[in-house]
Amino acid sequence: MNKKNNINRELTRLEIDMANKLIDLLNTKPYVTYKELAGYFNLGADHIAHQLGNIDMVCFRLGIPLISANVVNIGTDQPNSEGFIRVLEECKIPLNQYDNVIKKARENEDWSKLAEELRKIYNMCYNKNM
Hints:
Elements: H1 13-26, E1 32-33, H2 34-39, H3 49-62, E2 71-72, H4 81-90, H5 98-107, H6 112-125
Parallel strand pairs: 1-2
Helix pairs in contact: 1-3, 1-6, 3-4
């Protein structure tokens, strides 16, 4: 994650597409592996943490669970702890809330607020037909 504050930055088209795909996948299963999500974008599993962190900044801004808690390492069913801790630190969420943040994201079944925000960001930044 960049040293500068990313909470109020907008998303790239890749990040919007990745967030939408993640929402779609979470409608059918409780979590997704980094490898699976990265594969939809022809990226390596180790190349999506930055994008997920930026998507989480939008979640934080909206006051909803951090969606990347539902993207896990194969075999552990846990998010990448180093990257996820950076997101918590940037959001100023105490590290003793790590498990609670994951629990809230896993229990969340409605990502419509994020989906609506993604549409707004896309229309504002990328839809030139408005």
